[in-house]
Design a protein that fits this description.
The protein is mostly beta strands and about 1050 residues long. The protein is about 5% helix and about 45% strand. It has a domain of about 120 residues. The strands form ten sheets. The protein has a 22-stranded antiparallel beta barrel. A five-stranded mixed β-sheet has the order 3-9-10-7-8. Strands 4-5-6 form a three-stranded antiparallel β-sheet, with no helix packed on it.
Length: about 1050
């Protein structure tokens, strides 16, 4: 535990001791006092929730309104539902909310560069707070309206509220597609203790206790002090080796009303979360080069199988199971987490109320990691052992050159890091409620301040299990054994500080009109943000000391100069501040209208905005991107039908059609020009800039041999032209015979090129640039070695930059709550989502570019078309590459979820309950269809594309008994997950490749030597096997 976390822990401990000591003498309140204290305009009384149905919500407006009157899609997950499905954290509680995606399938893509991480669900996992709502990622949960960055236990949660659609009006950044808001358990006036014990599969065991009651209550009025405190210990593993998770959490809360118009709520959490076994499970086998695949005949990497999958060592070579974890048990992540919220509600005047809230969270993370790789080398024979570092194993003849012997070793390196993250949040709301012509009106003015600061300590390994190797250990290549940590040492390397400031100012109007038949909301929010990042590298106090003298490494007082100000041509950074130290500003707007057509039928329309600031990303010319924003358009209906004798609806439903347009999402285009990094005189090691290479023979001439790195475009511009692109009739032309040539390449000076009619080199350059079989016919950077090497200095390799794009998500979602009888409760949710790219991918102009630069080929522009645009890359249109209309998200198009609970209230089964839940996810992409060059894997020639994963379904069940035993009320519940025990899904398809039979290399289908072959692809997904949890709970 760090010193910085001791103070919050002392607060927690002292709060517990005070609560327990003061609670004893408090008089027991009347039965009617069993409720949380509430100020109706800001808080919902969750004791009014009936089973799985809730009637009111504050999410989306921050005002307590009937859900059916709010012109927003609000889904409430009640506490009873959370308990019935056996959820222990928020993510488990969201399992039956269709359209909230918590995992990813097709994670290998370049659409994860957006600030939100959206594009595919690749940044989602069970250990983060991120979820995907309506195709867009939401990074954090909200608790009392404040950002939460850890997966929250449900011990102190009364309900969850899901608001679909952009929600930045009140909640600021990171709300592009929706939010998940947690309603905490508020301390109650009646003493109450809930105890729950549980155990189950995967080494699950859990103990929790929640206690609440009065500390003090004034006589004759409503002044009081109540407390609540929860305590949890939990262990949960998975089937994979060593993947163990433990959680210790304590959650004190106080509610104090010192005066009739003043309420103070204090909500604290302290927890320790540990996860072991986080290292790699397997390693890819080393690739010796390209060979003919024995099944397909294709010339391809030797470590690729016939399914186009990389061969894995433990699983494929040594037949370890897929749950094997080669990296062993010694990796871990340990989080110490504290969050404290104080909220003061003060009624100032009649109808005028102020709410001041503040939250401070502190998360300290220690992480030990491991990296590994299979390394190879060759020698002249089995008796000639390698001289390079490693524990080498003779694995037989080299597949590419059988005359050589191939050797392999397993290298691994340990890592250690510490991250300390603070989040300080403050919010002031001023709410005024008044009547206008007899109609209720609300105006809310507010301001939020958020500061996120993170200090990240990185280290460097300085000892290993191999003499002579400081930062890498080695194992012999053979049947895997678990890799163990052996006390390797780490020296501090760098401390990186990241700070983000965000200020939001907002105004919200909510009004009821026409005898409350119409409810209108509208709002504006201005977001102002700034980012600063810099680092300080550790240095030796005594330069003569070895690296392993850890005490000799000190942190200088000043940050590294290179981290405070960028070089000329780079994104402008001033003293570490991004955007040139100029705060960025943006506005979002929301407007909605709800109309009550009949008593139990409401229609609504809403347009809402979301925002996610750019934290410093820039385009190829170093200009910062605008923030990632979203704007929705939505039409919906909410109905409550078929009242029972007590006036409660047997059917409660909502359905909506929505469209969400997103702008300024970020894609990493591997072939976009990057002038911010070009045109700098950086030499290759050992070379001199702009030396001369000369041809041979009577027509010999000279060309400048740049010696610059491939990411430079200093004049003169030269290319390496493969001789194979020369026409046979041109081989004896003086421009060819006199050119500098080496290893089948000609060094060409672009400035000296003549017309296609007169210059054979121009004709060959055109042929290379137009070659349908390759996009990199002119991609060579260097030929040869040493002083005689040829070095091209071309813009063909000056590429890789972020670009902005726009997309749209549209679809239908709905929730239905059924209570046909007092015994039967059903929740049914559905989402249909279609998402596709709409436009963007605008690249910047590259000065001094030529028509032979690679981005023209990847954008499907010919040299003639490039010349027609005056070689201005910013005039290109990405529609030619086929990305427009393509799907970038791997969330399912259709998702159904249903949960049924039946209570037996008579007969021999009285007190028993039976539940059945089913989730159905529609087909998902087995592989991202758009590659990092904006090309389609599904339609481009000679590409292999994995099939979709078919629809998947999972059935869960529960059996419970509630009743009296030994004078106490008990709840015994058995939850079974994956009832049908489906553990694997596989789907296959085929692709057509065109090969040259002589070489096995792929060629264009129009090539005279092309022979079509059919190859198989597959997509596989695994699931956790059937598991159970048995819990026993009672109220003391």
């Amino acid at each position: 535990m760090t010193t910085k976390l001791k103070f919050p822990v002392l607060i927690v401990a002292s709060g517990l001791s005070v609560a327990s000591s003061l609670a004893q003498p408090a008089p027991a309140p009347r039965a009617g006092d069993d409720r949380p204290v509430m100020l109706s305009e800001f808080r919902v009384d969750t004791t009014q929730d009936r089973g799985y149905i809730a009637t009111n919500s504050t999410t989306g407006t921050r005002l307590n309104l009937e859900i059916k009157a709010i012109p927003l899609p609000i889904e409430v997950i009640t506490r009873e539902f959370i308990d019935d499905i056996g959820a222990v954290d928020v993510k488990e509680a969201l399992e039956y909310s269709a359209g909230i995606v918590q995992d990813g399938v097709a994670t290998e893509n370049n659409f994860l560069f957006s600030p939100s991480g959206t594009g595919a669900a690749g940044s989602l996992s069970r250990d983060t707070t991120g979820v995907n709502i309506r195709g867009l990622n939401t990074r954090s949960f909200l608790r009392s309206g404040f950002r939460q960055d850890t997966v929250t236990d449900v011990v102190n949660v009364d309900r969850l509220e899901v608001a679909r659609g952009p929600q930045s009006l009140l909640y600021g950044v990171a709300s592009l597609g929706g939010v998940v808001a947690l309603t905490p358990k508020y301390p109650r006036a009646r003493p109450q203790t809930d105890l729950r014990l549980g155990f189950g599969s995967n080494e699950f065991y859990r103990a929790e206790i929640y206690n609440t009651g009065p500390i003090w209550k004034a006589r004759g009025d409503n002044r009081h002090l109540n407390y609540g405190v929860g305590l949890v210990y939990q262990n949960l593993s998975s089937r994979s080796d060593f993947d163990d998770r433990t959680r210790l959490l304590v959650t004190p809360a106080l509610e104090y009303r010192p005066f009739s118009d003043t309420n103070i709520f204090v909500d604290l959490e302290y927890g320790r979360f540990e996860n072991t076994g986080r290292g790699f499970q397997d390693l890819a086998d080393a690739n010796p080069g390209n060979v003919r695949n024995p099944v397909t005949g294709q010339l391809i990497a030797e470590n690729i199988n016939e399914w186009n999958e990389t061969r894995m060592v433990a699983k494929d070579l040594f037949k370890r199971g897929r749950l094997y974890r080669w990296s062993g048990p010694d990796t871990f992540t340990q989080d110490d987490y504290f969050s404290g919220t104080v909220e003061i509600t003060q009624k100032l005047l009649s109808g005028l109320t102020a709410v001041l809230g503040a939250n401070y969270s502190d998360r300290f993370t220690r992480n030990r990691s491991i990296s590994g790789s299979v390394q190879r080398t060759t020698t002249a024979g089995p008796t000639v052992t390698p001289t390079s570092l490693g524990r080498w194993t003779d694995v037989g003849p080299d597949p590419v050159n059988p005359a050589l012997t191939q050797w392999k070793t397993v290298g691994h390196g340990w890592g250690y890091s510490e991250t300390h993250k603070y989040i300080r949040q403050a919010r002031l709301d001023l709410s005024y409620e008044f009547n206008l012509f007899g109609h209720r009106q609300h105006i809310l003015l507010g301001r939020t301040e958020q500061t996120v600061q993170q200090s990240a300590l990185s280290t460097s390994q300085v000892t290993s299990n191999t003499p002579g190797s400081a930062n890498q250990g080695f194992l012999a290549f053979g049947a895997p054994e678990y890799i163990r940590f052996q006390g390797e040492q780490f020296r501090p390397f760098r401390d990186t500080i990241f700070t983000e400031w965000d200020t939001g100012t907002y105004a919200v109007y909510q009004g009821r009109w026409w005898k409350d038949r119409l409810t209108a909301i509208g709002g504006w929010r201005n977001e102002r943000y700034l980012v600063r990042s810099y680092y300080t590298s550790f240095v030796k106090q005594d330069a003569t000391q070895p690296d392993i003298n850890l005490a000799n490494w000190i942190l200088p007082g000043a940050p590294d100069a290179a981290s405070l100000v960028n070089a000329v041509g780079q994104a402008r950074i001033v003293n570490g501040y991004r955007f040139g130290a100029v705060p960025q500003r943006d506005d979002v707007f929301t407007a909605g209208l709800n109309a009550r057509l009949f008593r139990d039928v409401n229609l609504y329309a809403v347009s809402a905005g979301g925002i996610f600031p750019n934290t410093g990303q820039r385009d190829g010319a170093a200009n910062p991107f605008k923030p990632e924003t979203s704007q929705s358009r939505e039409l919906g209906a909410k109905v409550d039908l078929w009242k029972d004798a007590r006036g409660r609806s047997r059917i409660s439903a909502s359905v909506a059609y929505f469209e969400v347009d997103r702008q300024n999402a970020i894609y990493n285009f591997a072939f976009a020009p990057q002038p911010r990094s070009n045109n700098q005189s950086t030499l290759r090691a050992g070379f001199t800039g702009n030396t001369v290479a000369t041809g041979t023979g009577p027509t010999a001439y000279s060309v400048h041999n740049s010696g610059f790195t491939t990411f430079q475009t200093n004049n003169p511009v030269t290319y390496l032209l493969p001789v194979s692109y020369l026409a046979a009739a041109d081989l004896n032309h003086p421009r060819v015979t006199g050119a500098p040539q080496q290893s089948g390449f000609i060094l060409v000076d672009y400035a000296s090129l003549g017309s296609a009619a007169s210059d054979p080199l121009r004709r060959a350059m055109e042929a290379a640039a137009n070659d349908p079989a390759t996009n990199t016919g002119l991609g060579g950077a260097t030929v040869g070695t040493g002083a005689t090497a040829f070095n091209s200095n071309n813009a063909y390799m000056n590429r890789n930059s972020d670009v902005a794009y726009d997309d749209r998500s549209k679809g239908v979602d709905g929730q239905i709550y059924l209570n046909f009888t007092e015994n039967l409760s059903t929740v049914l949710t559905y989402t249909h989502l279609v998402q596709a790219v709409r436009g963007g991918f605008e690249i910047v102009d590259q000065p001094s570019s030529t028509e032979y630069d690679s981005w023209w080929r990847f954008l499907r522009y010919s040299p003639d078309e490039a010349r027609a645009l005056s070689l201005d890359e910013s005039k290109t249109n990405a529609t030619k590459v086929g990305a427009i209309g393509r799907r970038t998200s791997d969330v399912p198009r259709n998702v159904w979820a249903v949960w049924n609970n039946y209570k037996f209230t008579t007969g021999r089964l009285k007190g028993w309950e039976a539940s059945l839940g089913v989730t159905l996810n529609g087909p998902r992409q087995g592989e991202q269809v758009i590659d990092n060059g904006l090309r389609s894997r599904a339609t481009d020639e000679n590409r292999r594309y994995r099939p979709q994963l078919p629809m998947e379904y999972k059935a869960n069940a529960a059996i419970a008994w509630r009743g009296e035993f030994l004078g106490r009320r008990w709840n015994v519940r058995l939850n079974i997950t994956n009832l049908l025990d489906d553990q694997k899904m596989i789907n296959t398809n085929t692709s057509t490749l065109y090969l040259d039979p002589a070489t096995g290399a792929t060629v264009a289908s129009t090539s005279p030597t092309a022979r079509a072959i059919t190859v198989s692809n597959r997509a596989i997904r695994y699931y956790e096997p059937r598991s159970f949890r048995l819990s026993l709970s009672t109220r003391l």
